[in-house]
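User: Here's a chain of 172 residues. Predict its fold as tokens.
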Amino acid sequence: MIDDEVTAVYVEIKGKKRGEMYVSGDNVDIDIDEWHKLLEMNRGSGLEILVYAMKDGQWARYKPFDIHISQYPLDEWGMTYRRIAPGYKMYGHMGIYQRELATFEETALIDNRNLEGGCVNCHTSNRGRSDNYVFHVRSMHGGTVIGREGKTTFLPSVNDSIGGAMVYYKSP
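Assistant: Prediction complete.
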């Protein structure tokens, strides 16, 4: 709960088809295996969530809300992003990562610790496919990295025909 004066939380999660979970304590920590079972039991339907919070010795009930569960499974990898500390002025550790939304498994496409601390940016993937992507590396040995169907190509940012370092990828 955002409110620091809340001392306890109780949550009921009820499947619209079947199944339920109850979580309580000073925070809500849902067991991931139980959560996946509940989602599977209610695929194509939904869950109803009831939240109660104790503040100043009194329980308050919040307005219930629903979560719809698609009947279709998530694709293998669902999201690609640059991970960098929020509000940074000078970056340190960063990377381009992909996350499987069904399991939250995260894999680094590139970590700047492998690039002498260079900046990695301007990433994009082809319709979310983890085997088709492009991103740019700004560093002493920078360039554009193209991943296509399991093969990686590196285009250096400085060569005989380019007078200076490239900065951003521009699609044709």
